[in-house]
Amino acid sequence: GKKSLHQKIVDELKHYYNGFHLLWIDTKVAARMVWRLLHGQVLTRRERRRLLRTCADLFRLVPFLVFVIVPFMEFLLPVFLKLFPEMLPSTFETESKKEEKQKKKLNAKLELAKFLRETIAEMAKRNKADTG
């Protein structure tokens, strides 16, 4: 059913709390990775990607904090997210946004595969005509 205003506010506060909590955990893990790097250890590809994502999230946090700290500025957040979709740190994304991104990536991959399949089929026909 439809949620009351109080429930919407509580849900939003929980969302922000969880986002900041996840970002804090990622930051602690990234700090350990940086410590390992400084002591000459090599990171795996997965660790390197996580470190880069966390650093990017920390840089995205600065403009995002303006919306959280300034009163009533959070009402403009949807407008800015529409203009700059990658502005939000990854720990603050909802499941629906993640699924939407995955669907877009999958559709792009399917289109590329379809294009490559058609190109190969056309090249095969051309080679068959040249040899025949």
How would you describe what is shown here?
- It is a single chain.
- The radius of gyration is 22 Å and the shape is flat.
- The longest helix is centred in the C-terminal third of the chain and has 37 residues.
- It is an all-alpha fold and 132 residues long.
- The chain has three domains: 41 residues; 44 residues, no CATH class; 38 residues.
- 78% of the residues lie in helices and 0% in strands.
- α1 packs across α2.
- It starts with a helix and ends with a helix.
- The protein contains four helices and no strands.
- This is LETM1 protein.
- It is a single-pass membrane protein.
Distance between the termini: 67 Å
Unreliable residue runs = none
Q: Could you spell the SSE succession in H and E letters?
A: HHHH
Mean pLDDT: 88
CA-atom Rg in angstroms: 22 Å
Number of domains: 3
Number of E-state strands: 0
Q: Helical element count?
A: 4
The biggest beta sheet is recorded as: none
* Proportion of helical residues: over 70%
Structural class: mainly alpha
> How large a portion of the residues is in β-strands, by DSSP E?
under 5%
Broad shape: flat
